[in-house]
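Thread title: Can someone regenerate the structure for this chain?

I was given the following input by a collaborator and told the matching structure tokens would be attached. They weren't. Posting the sequence so someone can regenerate them.
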Amino acid sequence: MRCVITAGLVAAAGCGPSAPSSATPPADAPPLDFAGWPALTPAPVRLAPRLFALCITPPEAKRLGPHFVPQARYLVNPDGEAAVRGGLFPVPAGTTVVKAKGWADCPDQGEWFAAMTKREPGYDPAGGDWEYLTARREGGRWQVERGPLADCSGCHQQAAGTDFLFRGYLSP
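Best answer:
Regenerated them for you:
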């Protein structure tokens, strides 16, 4: 059985495909290596299928049908961990958060993911100065979108009070 991990950053609202950015074409290496980053959740968190499908739905969801059990892991780069965990908003520039989506009994393949990176003030003031990145590996090549992606930032507007970060996955 072939498993694919996806990552997205939206926890609660409609996120769909965005227009491709003018980023440099992807290389054979992943555009972001988050292996070994601190996990914000001790284990993957189960997600409602409708939340899982907001940004990216892997082909396995259709293939597995009712046996598809979506879940997500939440990670943050070491430089941003204290601010994200502690709710110290706004988080510092350079903070990167990943929501790695997968499903029960699927090893982490890292073939689909998304991330949001806090940029310096002025990058995208209306969107909290976050840059979004979505990536998926198809046919040995990375398909990448990055920038102030309208669909992502539109969803994250709901979380403007917490620096555009959904935090429902964090333990109290």
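Residues 1-22 have pLDDT under 50 and may be disordered.
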